[in-house]
Amino acid sequence: MAITNNEFWIVFGALLATVAFLYSSVGHGGASGYLALMAIYSFPISVIKPSALLLNLFVSGISFFFYYKKDFFKVKLFYPFAITSVPAAFIGGMIPLENKLYKILLGIVLIIAALRLFGFFKNSEKQNVTLNIPFAMGIGFGIGLLSGMLGIGGGVILSPILLFLGWATLKETAAISSLFIFVNSIAGLSGYFMGENTFPTQSFYLVPIAVFGGIVGAYYGSGYFSNKVLKYILATVIVLASIKLIV
């Protein structure tokens, strides 16, 4: 990985900023997109997981700030998931997966993310349905554990669940998912460090790029911004990465 190579900064940096822009616009941190890009560029597994969590932390925090300012965040819809997801993500972050298994699981998650971007999980809003707290806590635990193991925040899994079950509106889902991703990323990173892993310093070179894209995306996304075509392009990139991982 030639992090100081000019071509890397121009191409990879532009793609990274685009991913942060797109994901933050819908209340996500962008981990699945970062993972896809790093897989395509053949980053080592030891760099992929912590880097995705670090970038996720910054971008999801930015996204939450903008959605919170618009008063879309509902704490009663957030805490049942967070109570169980945070400790589960911490545990997941300590679990070292064999490279082949990691790639297969990550590939499956990326396919789910791509299908959502392609519109297979419609973002249609149902009538408000009362949140089933025990069920929500179980969902939070499962997503949190998977998030910690794979280096994602879990928002790409939580969002379609919230919408499908009618527990939140589109904007509420974005606000809830962004904070959910933020706390899970912290827990996942903490678990990663508890596993006596070292943090790749290369990751910090990517933070300013992701932050720039995240700020712009969250600013427009918290309003009524639409970027359908770009989402399809991003979904294609994710599919290619998942194929690269699984095959």
TrEMBL record:
Locations listed in the record: Cell membrane; Membrane
Lipid metabolism found in the keyword field: no
Claim: Lyase is one of the keywords in the record: no
Record membrane topology: Multi-pass membrane protein
Coiled coil: none
One matching Pfam family: TauE
Gene Ontology CC: plasma membrane
InterPro entries referenced in this protein's UniProt entry, alphabetically: TM_pro_TauE-like (IPR002781), TSUP/Inactive_protease-like (IPR051598)
TM helices/strands, residue ranges: 7-26, 38-65, 77-95, 101-121, 133-162, 174-193, 205-223, 229-246
Keyword annotations of the record: Cell membrane, Membrane, Transmembrane, Transmembrane helix
Annotated family: Belongs to the 4-toluene sulfonate uptake permease (TSUP) (TC 2.A.102) family.
Name this protein carries in UniProt: Probable membrane transporter protein
Organism expressing this protein natively: Flavobacterium luteum
